């Protein structure tokens, strides 16, 4: 792919400047670390440090290779929230055992391997930025270690004070890396909310666990290096247990939009209906179909249509509540499951989504390698609420679909709510009784 077509250049101008600025600072830190090592400001790299570097590099590569499938699917699902991983384990262990120049080399090895084997070469600029955040976080943590008196490697905790210093360094590493990633998300997706960009904070426990394991790996490598391979079994088990819920969500994620797949959504609906029945609660359902979406594909090409569809999905997710489920159930048809929502709440959310899509602006690459701007991607909506309108999943979906067809026939870009069916004539229940 020629440089002018790199996805990096499609970022909004503020985000592009931010990403390039972080990358430039990381390059500067790398140059300073290398010059410090080569100029003799610190003792040269010792054989034990080279050994530790080799052990950590090999362990990092084996770890990435063993988790390659799960990590690829997890990153696909991380569109507008931080993507957490356990690379911090090996990098922070290196920070306690190695000079900063070798820590930078370890980061490069880890992310270079990820780019080639795990994530794919089409998102190289994201891997460069992620590696840069690791380098900046490592430099900040190294400064904390030096300020606390841990001047030479290995810098593993051997007393209460050194433990506090290492914990402060780990906290600094996490904060710097997290803040840099959040800044990029907010600038790259102007429509993203701060709450959405923060993601699920409980997932940051993955990073915390990685930093803690990094301290353990560093201590073992410094004193009992032959135990490190045994610890790898623990690392892989924790990787599975900590990230399996994310993997399950990723496995049910549509690659093009980041929304739930039809099968994932179809499994979630009966679960929510059963929960609502137990709690005597409600479940709202919105079905929306993009109006004249075929015209976008025919005019600009299918890649442009995919980009527009992804922007629509992001807009819909930005307007629903936390805990609501947005799925792509057809080519250009989406469904929103709203547990506990009343009809009034469902219609309010639908109106917010409708207004947002009507004014949505999307920049797309056309088939002729030019950039076009699509203004407005309107949709028609059908709404239904359990148990007011339906008692089963099939009935609920059918009611929402029928309301959607009514909205289409009424002129498109409209919201129609399904109404409860009246009792059959001759039934024992009088019409109008509550």
TrEMBL record:
Organism domain of life: Bacteria
Record keywords: Membrane, Transmembrane, Transmembrane helix
Keyword Transmembrane helix on entry: yes
All copies of domain GGDEF, residue ranges: 281-420
Transmembrane segments: 15-38, 90-116, 128-148, 160-189, 201-220
Protein name as catalogued: Diguanylate cyclase
The species this protein was found in: Kribbella sancticallisti
């Amino acid at each position: 792919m020629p440089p002018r077509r790199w996805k990096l250049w499609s970022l909004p101008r503020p985000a592009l400047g931010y990403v390039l600025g972080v990358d430039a600072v990381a390059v500067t830190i790398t140059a300073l670390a290398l010059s410090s090592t080569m100029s003799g400001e610190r003792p040269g790299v010792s054989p034990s440090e080279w050994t530790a570097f080799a052990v950590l590099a090999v362990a990092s590569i084996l770890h990435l290779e063993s988790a390659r499938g799960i990590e690829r699917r997890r990153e696909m699902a991380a569109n507008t929230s931080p993507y957490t991983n356990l690379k911090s384990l090996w990098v922070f262990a290196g920070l306690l055992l190695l000079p900063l120049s070798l820590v930078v080399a370890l980061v490069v090895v880890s992310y270079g391997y990820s780019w080639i084997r795990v994530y794919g070469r089409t998102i190289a600029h994201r891997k460069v930025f992620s590696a840069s955040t690791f380098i900046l976080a490592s430099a900040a943590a190294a400064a904390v270690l030096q300020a606390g008196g841990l001047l030479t490697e290995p810098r593993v905790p051997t007393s209460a004070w050194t433990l506090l210093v290492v914990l402060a360094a780990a906290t600094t590493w996490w904060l710097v890396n997290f803040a840099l990633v959040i800044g990029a998300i907010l600038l790259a997706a102007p429509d993203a909310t701060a709450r959405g960009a923060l993601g699920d904070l409980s997932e940051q426990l993955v990073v915390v666990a990685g930093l803690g394991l990094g301290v353990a790996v560093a201590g073992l490598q410094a004193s009992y290096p032959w135990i490190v391979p045994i610890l790898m079994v623990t690392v892989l088990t924790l990787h599975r247990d900590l990230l399996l819920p994310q993997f399950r969500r990723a496995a049910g994620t549509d690659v093009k939009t980041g929304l739930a797949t039809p099968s994932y959504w179809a499994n979630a609906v009966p679960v929510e209906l059963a929960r609502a029945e137990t709690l005597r609660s409600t479940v709202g359902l919105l079905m929306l179909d993009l109006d004249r979406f075929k015209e976008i594909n025919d005019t600009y090409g299918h890649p442009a249509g995919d980009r527009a569809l992804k922007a629509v999905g992001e807009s819909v997710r930005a307007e629903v509540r936390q805990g609501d489920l947005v799925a792509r159930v057809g080519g250009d048809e989406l469904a929103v499951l709203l547990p506990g929502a009343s009809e009034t709440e469902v219609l309010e959310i639908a109106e917010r989504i409708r207004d947002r899509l009507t004014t949505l602006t999307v920049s797309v690459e056309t088939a002729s390698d030019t950039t076009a701007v699509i203004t407005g991607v309107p949709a028609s909506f059908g709404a239904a609420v359990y148990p007011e309108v339906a008692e089963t999943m099939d009935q609920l979906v059918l009611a929402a679909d029928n309301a959607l067809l009514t909205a289409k026939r009424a002129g498109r870009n409209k919201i129609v709510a399904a109404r409860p069916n009246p009792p059959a004539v001759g039934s024992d229940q009088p019409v109008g009784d509550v």
